[in-house]
Amino acid sequence: MTAAPVTPQGSLTVTGHWYYYDRDDAYTPAIEFLVELVRGDNSAHLAWCFTDLAGAYSCGPVDNPGGVGVRTRLYSWTNYNPNPDTLAVVNPDWGTSNDTANAYKTRTGVVVLADGVQDIGSWHSNNGSNYERAYWTLRDVIDVWRYVHFNGGGGEAGPTTVEWKLDGTHGDEYHPGGNVHITGETPLAPKGTVTKHEYGHNIMYNVYAGYMPPNPSCNPHTIQGSYSAGCAWTEGWAEFLPAVVNNDPHYYWANGAQLNLETPSWGTSGWSSGDWVEGRVAGALWDMFDAASDGDDTYSDGGFANFWDVMRNVRSDTFSHWWSSWLGRGHSNVSWGPIMGLYQNTIEYRTGPANDDFANRHTIPYLPFVVSGLDTRNATTQGLDPALPCASVAYPRQSRSVWYAYTPTVTDLYKVDTIGSSHDTVLALWRGSWGGLANRGCNDDAGGLTSSLTRTLYAGVTYYIEAMAYGSGAGGTLSLTMSRQPNDRIFSDGFTGDQ
Fold this sequence. Notes:
Layout: E1 11-21, E2 27-29, E3 34-39, E4 45-50, E5 56-63, E6 70-75, E7 77-80, E8 85-90, E9 105-107, E10 116-124, H1 132-151, E11 160-163, E12 173-174, E13 180-181, H2 193-207, H3 229-246, E14 250-252, E15 258-260, H4 278-289, H5 305-313, H6 319-328, H7 338-344, E16 362-363, E17 369-375, E18 398-406, E19 412-417, E20 425-431, E21 438-443, E22 452-457, E23 463-470, E24 477-485, E25 495-496
Parallel strand pairs: 1-10, 8-11, 11-13, 16-18
Antiparallel strand pairs: 1-2, 1-5, 3-4, 3-6, 6-9, 7-8, 12-13, 14-15, 17-24, 18-23, 19-22, 19-24, 20-21, 20-23, 22-25
């Protein structure tokens, strides 16, 4: 037998690309995965390296092993230095630590390469292989880690170890201080929602420095049910996070079921109400975050950074605690803002006047009618609050609105004013029904920063009076007077003063 020629020993750097088929059967680069360069004969370690965002890697330089060749191996493992945050998907039959020996590996063929920088080519795990779900799962947690890193404005999501095997039945859950457990089928959930949810629990534990809020009555639980404030907060956060990362408010399960967290509101069938319901907490957070208008939710915070600021700086046990910390750290409390997203999701934290909403308008029983010193600083603005033909025309138009209703018994001239109020006011007069109100008068500044309207009102017709702060004003103490005006003229649905 003739011996194989001896390749001269020298320096070798191996480049290449790693891919896999994702859960949508798309040929996908393995981004930021660990790669090992090994000898082709005995798999002895030569070098570690990581793929980049295109799945490309460069391992070496190492001593070229010559004719025995080399191969590379792709691991379900990554590490973000200098944190260090290790993200690993391991087979619990091999071990439950995040050691690379417990991670899934796919290898190239053996290739003999000359000295220098040599490309071993593009390789992929077999489509439909038993290991590809491990790569899906690693990509899911990488996507979450990267989202927090690049959008959180500081601080990191922290490490996680996910225990998964193809025939696994343990899960889906996170053990505080331990690992995430998912079943063999869990990676089939569209967009990795369930895995990202469980990593969300791990992230809460990480940023709370090894603390997990008490969550009584949380096993078992459903997204729509009411169990405890702690349960709703820990689970609601973990449902919000995948929605943000995926930019999709749907929660997806591996069996094909899905649930939209954005659309439920007051009276939605099958849903409990309030901040003991995890789906309400998740929906409220989502409505604070997203740009879509949805009922009383017309606000978007514009990004993730403020949410993460509260998460990593305040150890909240409940959503109400988180909300008070949101306010305490100086984040938005505009009258049309986050608090209305909470209300849209049946979480009522508003503390404004009783007649804050159109539905709770104060009926004026007789004239003259006087309001003195009504505090409107916590009044809110509903999503269907109608646009005005006067005052600020820029979003959000006006703010801190309160409502009154009056049905005259005599057709005559009537006056409403806010003289004596402590802030810049706007007055509007409406007829019709909520969602389709027709304006019958509007005034911004009749004298100083206060407002005044004089209008002919017709007997038996109900009119709605809206008193607001100008633009995005903070409100203040409202003084409001309504009286019938002595007059020998009746205007045909007319008006005096500014419009």
